[in-house]
Structures are given as C-alpha cells and as structure tokens.
Amino acid sequence: MDWDSPSARPLLPLVVALRETLFQHERLLVPSLFAAFWKQFASALDQHLLAHLLRAQRFSTSAAAQLRSHLLGAILPLFSLYTHSPELHMPQTQEGCLLLTLDTAVAAEVLQVLEEAVGTSSVSAVAVRDLNVAGDRTVSREESSDRPRPRARDPIALLAQNGVHQMDMQQAIAILRQRVSPGQLFLKLSSTRDWF
C-alpha cells in the first residue's frame, strides 16, 4: 500500500486505529479468546463496510477499483497476522468490491438477471414469460408451449461465475445499483449550474 498516495492518506488513521485495537486485545486476552475476538471483529467490520460504505455510496468503476485496492490492500493485511487466508473473514467487502469493478456490460447483465430472478425489474420476468408476441398477434400459453423458450440465466451461477459466492441476490442488486456509469456522471455534472 502506497501511503504517500493522496487517496490513501485518509485511510491511514483508520488502519492505525484498527491495528491498535487488535494489538491491545491480543495483549489482554488469552490466545483462544483472542482468536474468537479477531474473527468476530473481522466479521463486524465486513458487515459495517458493506452497509455503510459499499451500499451507501455511489461509485464509478475507477473509484470502485481504487476503493478495492485501498480496502483490500490496507485492511486484509491486518488480519494476515492471525490467518493465512484473511480474505475468508471479509467476504462481503471483497465480493462487493468485485461487483463494483465488473465490466459495465457484465454488470448490466448480472443486474438484469438478478432483478428478473427476484422480481424487482421494471418488467417482471413473469410478465415477459407470459406474454409471447409473434408478429402482430399474441401467442397463447398453449401455442407457445410447443416452442422452445430461451433459457433463463441462473442468477446464482452467474454470481459465482463473477466471483461472488457468499453474498445473497438482494445485496448484490443493491451494490450493483450503486454503480455510476460515465454517462450518469456527465449528466450530473452538466446539470449542476454552480460547479465552478
């Protein structure tokens, strides 16, 4: 981690405070209690970062990549003193960062498949499935049952294919909705009159 980087400097007090908390508890607790403490601490930090950072802020792809680099490059090493696999103890943060840094087209596809699976898209999957249009006339369910239907993508398999194994679909949708496309950023800047 390059602590001289202007974007990394604000994280330094947080990382120092986390390190000090861990070191103090390591000195005060017997090893078995400390092992339980740091795992619980990592889990709580993981949930906090998910709820109050990844799901609460909007991110461009480049800002998300920088966040991923800083969070995983600064916080995971703190726990590497106690385990060979610190990433296993902060899966939500890691997977949230993965979702935020997906290629734009992939992220759009994942979001669409997830929304259709949980029924939160603007056009529900049931409505699309029940309404089959051929030319100018609507095809009944009986007529369409003879035709092969396009196979819906499995949302869980799609998440796993993109490195997301622990996060549920609702959380993944919430995080993907936090992405800001370059077009959205431009529109927001151009609509602000007093940005000089």
Keywords:
196 residues; mainly alpha; two-stranded antiparallel sheet; 61% helix; disordered C terminus
3D structure, described in words:
This protein is mostly helical. It has helices at residues 12-28, 31-54, 61-74, 76-79, 91-100, 104-118, 125-130, 141-144, 155-161, 169-176, 182-191; strands spanning 132-134, 137-139. The chain has a two-stranded antiparallel sheet. Strand 1 and strand 2 form a beta hairpin. It is globular, with a radius of gyration of 22 Å.
> What value does the Rg take, in angstroms?
22 Å
**SSE series:** HHHHHHHEEHHHH
User: Which structural class should the secondary elements be placed in?
Assistant: mainly alpha
**Largest sheet properties:** 2 strands, antiparallel
Going across the major beta sheet, what is the strand order?
1-2
How many structural domains can be distinguished in the coordinates? 1
How confident is the prediction overall: mean pLDDT?
78
* First and last CA, distance: 33 Å
**Number of DSSP strand runs:** 2
Helix content: 55-70%
- Enumerate the spans where pLDDT stays under 50 for 5 or more consecutive residues: 122-150, 185-196
Shape: globular
Question: What amount of the residues lies in strands?
Answer: under 5%
Structure at a glance:
With 196 residues, the chain is mostly helical. It has helices spanning 12-28, 31-54, 61-74, 76-79, 91-100, 104-118, 125-130, 141-144, 155-161, 169-176, 182-191, and strands at 132-134, 137-139.
